[in-house]
Design goal:
It is a multi-pass membrane protein. Keywords: 2Fe-2S, FAD, Flavoprotein, Iron, Iron-sulfur, Membrane, Metal-binding, Oxidoreductase, Transmembrane, Transmembrane helix. Its main location: membrane. The protein has three domains: 160 residues, Nucleotide-binding domain of ferredoxin-NADP reductase (FNR) module (Rossmann fold, 3-Layer(aba) Sandwich), CATH 3.40.50; 201 residues; 93 residues, Translation factors (Elongation Factor Tu (Ef-tu), domain 3, Beta Barrel). The protein is of the alpha/beta class. It has 17 helices and twelve strands. A six-stranded mixed sheet has the order 1-10-9-8-11-12, sandwiched between helices. Strands 2-3-6 form a three-stranded antiparallel sheet, with no helix packed on it.
């Protein structure tokens, strides 16, 4: 392994990880930006607490309205109705999580919201299964029918029950393909297509609740409450996933202005448009990009900004990972671009300390390079690659480090657990526990470094990382 180090004369001296001779870059004295004050209130904590509070408050309202409507004589039916109501509430909450509302996304991040969405989905699956089982067995107990015939009878005689059965079937299928075993074996396009049927299940479940829900119709307050819950959830999806992207793209009229190969398998695309100074993009964020050509308009790929937005242009840098990304170097200047975003919480908004450490692995350097441009205070940058030729944007990083008064370490060598082990990382950054750490790289590297940072005593609130699948 080899570590190449760059730092300015005013920077603190660092020891170096090395098994081969270290190549030192010329030192340059620069004027360092004044340290930024630590963030007093953590945006992610505020947003997360807000979501939990909203969910808890609505759970309490549901329980109150359920009790107010009265209880059935059969305990199984009571449990079934309550499970159904909480299943409906979780469905509405799940829609909010994937609505891509800017306020939530900037504070929590799409990757974490998507993870919460997944676990909420399993909660929906089990509560709605409980609803179906308890209701069926409860009515079967009252009518002396067997559960199968009772379910058929309910579907044939009670309005909305057949729609509920279809909705539950869809949710079971979606839950099955969302399991880890199935997800790893399905193509993303197949999984995504099946997942879209969740919206059909939501509509069917809502119409079932309107038609057959005793709590829904028990009072005008209950009816108004449930219409409000579904209206907010579905309205959030409509605004975040459709209205806002359409409006922003109509407003900014994005076009490709340059296509610059960075290496044999990495390309940068420069994009300009109207009023980009009014686009709320920050360094570290990403967009879902669609290049509106005949063969690519339907493909949306997540790529980070590889330079801080300057109000006149945007830039993404992508590595070839398939036919879609390989075709990017052939995109023509002038091509219209449809961009959804900006997304992600991997920004300076979440800083808690005046100094920072930025760690990049491979093409995960793209948001790191943009962040370095945006951050104030002393920064240390560690760029981990297998070979020197893999260090895309390294010349830009080196020039930027000179200008910002930052330290830059290029760590090369085959992937191995000890390349950035605790002892080596502590030698490079002795005061690591006093810094914010921004980390972006492949999953294996990210997992290893998160464990290393815990061993070095870096507080959890100072660690900021982006999933490589969304950032790269």
């Amino acid at each position: 392994m080899k570590v190449r180090r760059q730092e300015n004369d005013s920077s603190r001296q660092r020891s170096s990880v090395s098994q081969d001779p270290i190549k030192e870059l010329p030192s340059v004295t620069t004027v360092q930006s004044p340290p930024a004050p630590p963030t007093a209130i953590r945006p992610r904590v505020v947003a997360r607490a807000g979501l939990y509070a909203v969910l808890a408050a609505n759970a309490a309202v549901v329980a109150f309205l359920f009790a107010q409507a009265g209880f059935a004589s059969n305990a199984l039916i009571v449990l079934g109705r309550l499970a159904g109501l909480y299943g409906a509430l979780l469905m509405a909450f799940q829609l909010l999580l994937v609505a891509r509302l800017p306020w939530l996304d900037r504070r929590i991040g799409m990757d974490r919201l998507t993870s919460w969405h997944r676990w909420t989905g399993f909660g929906i699956l089990w509560t709605l299964l409980a609803h179906a089982v308890f209701i069926t067995f409860g009515y079967a107990q009252s009518s002396s029918m067997d559960p199968v015939n009772q379910l058929v009878d309910l579907a044939e005689t009670v309005e909305g029950v057949l729609r509920a059965v279809v909705a539950l079937t869809i949710i079971v299928v979606v839950g099955a393909v969302s399991g880890r075993y199935a997800r790893r074996r399905l193509a993303y396009e197949t999984w995504h297509f099946i997942h879209l049927y969740t919206y059909v299940a939501v509509v069917l479940a809502f119409t079932h609740q309107v038609a057959a829900g005793t709590t829904f119709t028990s009072s005008s307050a209950a009816t108004a409450y449930w219409y409000a819950v579904w209206g907010v959830a579905l309205g959030s999806v409509l605004v975040g996933r459709l209205v806002l992207p359409l409006w922003r793209n109509w407003r900014h009229q994005l076009r490709v202005t340059a296509v610059v190969p960075e290496s044999d398998n990495v390309v940068s695309i420069h994009i300009s448009g109207r009023d980009l100074d009014r686009m709320p993009a920050r360094a570290g964020q990403f967009f879902l990009w669609r290049f509106l050509t005949r063969d690519r308009w339907w493909q949306a790929n997540p790529f980070s900004l590889s330079a801080a937005p300057d109000g006149t242009r945007l830039r993404l840098t992508a590595k070839t990972a398939g036919d879609g990304t390989a075709a990017l170097r052939h995109v023509k200047v002038g091509t219209r671009v449809f961009a959804e975003g900006p997304y992600g919480a991997f920004t300076a908004m979440h800083r808690t300390r005046p100094e920072s450490l930025l760690v990049a692995g491979g093409v995960g350097v793209t948001p790191i390079r943009a962040l370095l441009e945006d951050l104030e205070g002393h920064a240390v940058v560690i760029y981990r690659v297998a070979e020197d030729r893999d260090a895309v944007l390294y010349d830009e990083l080196r020039e930027l480090a000179h200008a910002k008064g930052a330290e830059l370490h290029l760590v090369t060598g085959p992937a191995a657990p000890d390349r950035l082990a605790p002892s080596e990382l502590a030698r490079l950054v002795p005061d690591i526990a006093e810094r914010d750490v921004f980390l972006c790289g492949p999953p294996g590297m990210t997992t290893t470094l998160l464990r290393t940072l815990r061993e070095l005593g870096v507080p959890k609130q100072q660690i900021h990382h982006e999933r490589f699948s969304l950032a790269g």
